[in-house]
Amino acid sequence: MLVSQHCKDIVAIEKEIAMLKNEIEKQFEDDERMTILTSIKGIAKWSAASFLVELGDNERFKSSSQVAGFFGVNPSFKISGDGLFKVRMSKQGSSTMRALLFVIANNVKLHDEYFKSIYAKHRAKGKKHKVVMGILMHKILRVLWGMLKSKTTFDEKVDEKNIENNQQEEQVAQISKKARRLQPVSTNAPISRSNTKKRKAMLEPQSLNNNEQTRSSKHSSTQT
Q1: pLDDT score for 208
Q2: DSSP secondary-structure letter at 41?
Q3: Fewest CB atoms within 10 A around its CB: which of 82, 102, 200, 206?
């Protein structure tokens, strides 16, 4: 009797869940954002509606990095007590959104060729399944937010172009950082007083070393 009653309760709860899901989907029937999100193969109406509920107003986020950090799918350093560190998902913010993104990422890697290729590429590098799923969750959140912001359906060519632009920007940043590193230390720049003192302290030993080298060279020339 107890088992029978529990089964009846489960069936009743499942019917209520299905009814509530239908009501939530109806709230977004005429919303153009549903058409935008479901343009990716593997994202159905329920997943799209759930994503919109969890995301809220997408205009409150200024960048894709900000929305990724808000929902905790961004990478972060985890340091253990013995001093070892690993890069893990930060898992801050809504756990419901992360669970939803996991379901969406699993669906798109099965039905969408573009995301399937991304999964296969990272797996070929030797990364574990859970690690690659985390990468896909981060990726899909940024893509969905970008689609909503630009009000355009999914186009893999746009995403590929964005990746290429980001790589070029990183290369330029690395070159400029290296160029700044190779510049000689000077006090002629518009810097604070404390920084001026630090630079003078760095330059004084250099000048002393140069003087010593000059003296030693003169001394050696007279000996010869």
Answers
A1: 55
A2: T
A3: 82
pTM: 0.68
Place of tokens 């010593």: 212
Q: What pLDDT was estimated at residue 83?
A: 61
Average pLDDT over residues 109-135: 93
Amino acid letter for position 221: S
Rounded to whole angstroms, how far apart are CA atoms 147 and 165? 17
Picking from 50, 38, 36, 39, the residue whose alpha carbon sits closest to that of residue 149 is 36
For residue 198, how many C-alpha atoms fall within 13 Å in the half-sphere facing its CB?
7
CA proximity to 50, closest of 22, 30, 69: 22
Structure tokens at 91: 């898992």
Scan for tokens 């509530």, then name that residue: 20
Contacts 24+ apart (CB under 8 A), 22-31: 24/49, 24/50, 24/53, 25/49, 28/52
Contact 149, 64 (CB under 8 A): no
- From CA 138, how far away is CA 73, in angstroms rounded? 5
Using only C-alpha atoms, the chain has a radius of gyration, in whole angstroms, of: 29
Bridge partners of 79, per DSSP, are 85
CA distance 118 to 121: 5
Q: Name the 3-class secondary structure at 77.
A: strand
